[in-house]
Amino acid sequence: MKKVITYGTYDLLHEGHIRLLERAKALGDWLIVGVTNDSFDRERGKLNVRNDVLERVDAVRATGLAVQIVIENYMGQKIDDILKYDVDIFAIGSDWEGKFDYLGEYCEVVYLPRTEGISSTMLRAASEQEIRIGVVGCGRIARRFVPEAAKVERAVVAGYYDTLREAAEQLAAESGAGVVYDSFEELVDAVDALYIATPHLSHYEQSRYALEHGKHVLCETPLVLCAEQAKELFAIAEHNGVVLLEANKTAFCPAFNHLVTLIKSGLIGDVVGIDASESKLWNEEELRRELNPDEAGGSLYEMGSYPLLPIVKLLGTQYDNLNLYSRLNDKGVDVYTRGIMLYSGAVASFQLGLGVKTEGNLVVSGTQGYAYIPSPWWKTDYFELRYEDQNKNKKYFYSWDEPGLRYEIREFLSAIVEGRLRSSRLTPEESVAMAEVMSRFTERKNFFEI
Ligand code: C2G
To answer: What is the CATH number of domain 254-399?
Structure first.
């Protein structure tokens, strides 16, 4: 008996997939179809898959062409499956020509011509309304946003506004699409959603205006520097039925989310301590904006929401006490801040440096083991779970697609399309809690200068 195996995502199963399966089946007597699981697809950069793995398996089963269906979970599984099921032929569409030649060591490899004129991407595009996004503040981060948005289906950057018109024009020219508006209000009027990438102190007014006008908002982190303002913004968003999301890229990346779910599943026992840090040792010129006292510069405002993320995700938003220790420069801006947050049964500490260097890792200590995420942990692509018995240690590898903004854009758009006003990956309460830490610093509450 000749066994044939083929693999795919089979999102929105279409004629191209069916023809491929028919021809693969005709190569032998027994067809095995591997269907990718959702996290494997995300890891290999397929961010826009519409059907979940169960729906996709059902669709493949309904074709009646597969004798056996397996789930593809990891890189390298194809070799394992070929050996395990004693496969004679590996078949795949011609878009993969040459990519699977390495399997020739284990079985025959056949590339079947791809059906022209149809793809899951086309079907998704045809059934999806576009979300027109307006970019406010056309500086460094916005320049990264525009090419990232192009990687997310449905996202169309339709307009730009910057107080410095040339900055908006330059960005529009670079991206080759979108209109430059003379005022923020006109931009808001023209789009469905806003990406706010202005300096911190403008976030509150601009987000509020956009939300009040019924527009969805993805606002750069820190959303605001005060808990009351954050609460107010989320209340307006809820009242108007629009999405407000803080653009904390780590919160939406696959590896960080997997880390959180593994820890929440008890793999290191109860969490009793978290140490998170991040620092930049650039020269003063490079840090001019980040250290500018008139633009709420300083290490805590600038970077605090990254180390605060694992803390509030794993220990919650209700801490009993927070002490802050900072070194201030001659303009009163913190170049280094350490915060210690006391929870019932746990303590978390974070360190931030802008002009001070420290090891930038994340360690989560538990009653049965600990998680170690090396620097730069906020671009999570690797972590380890470690135990007293080193034989139990486990390493987890992922990929992080630079610069990582696609993760937040994707979450923002799916929240809009699905009418989901909250993201479980970064909840309004978690954003409020981070803003609360900023407020305490501003008010110099339990604050010690070092
Ligand atoms: N296909 C086709 N014609 C199309 C579209 C897809 O013949 N118009 C084929 C692809 O070449 C592939 C199969 O259908 O052989 C499944 O395609 P996808 O669902 O896009 O999955 P893909 O990303 O190609 O998965 O481990 C996963 C595999 O490596 C490939």
So the answer is: 3.30.360.10
- Has residue 25 got a pLDDT over 80? yes
Give 232's contacts (C-beta < 8 A, 6+ positions apart): 208
pLDDT of 126 strictly over 90: no
Identify the three-state secondary structure at position 42.
helix
Mean pLDDT of 16-32: 98
Q: Would the pTM count as exceeding 0.70?
A: yes
Distance 34 CA to ligand 1 centre (A): 11
Distance CA 288, CA 79 (A): 53
Q: Are strands 155-161 and 179-180 parallel, antiparallel or unpaired?
A: parallel
Is 37 a pocket residue for ligand 1 (Cβ < 6 Å)?
Answer: no
Q: Quickly name the fold that domain 129-248 has.
A: Rossmann fold (3.40.50)
DSSP assignment letter at 167? H
Q: Torsion angle of alpha carbons 362, 140, 328, 433, nearest 10°? A: -50
In ligand 1, the atom with minimum distance to the C-alpha of 114 is: 7
CA pseudo-torsion sign 115, 121, 125, 126:
positive
**CA end-to-end span of the chain, whole Å?**
76
Evaluate whether 252 touches 410 at the Cβ level (below 8 Å): yes
Mean pLDDT of 36-62: 90
Which of the listed CATH numbers 3.90.550.10, 3.40.50.620, 3.20.20.70, 3.40.50.11890 matches domain 3-123? 3.40.50.620
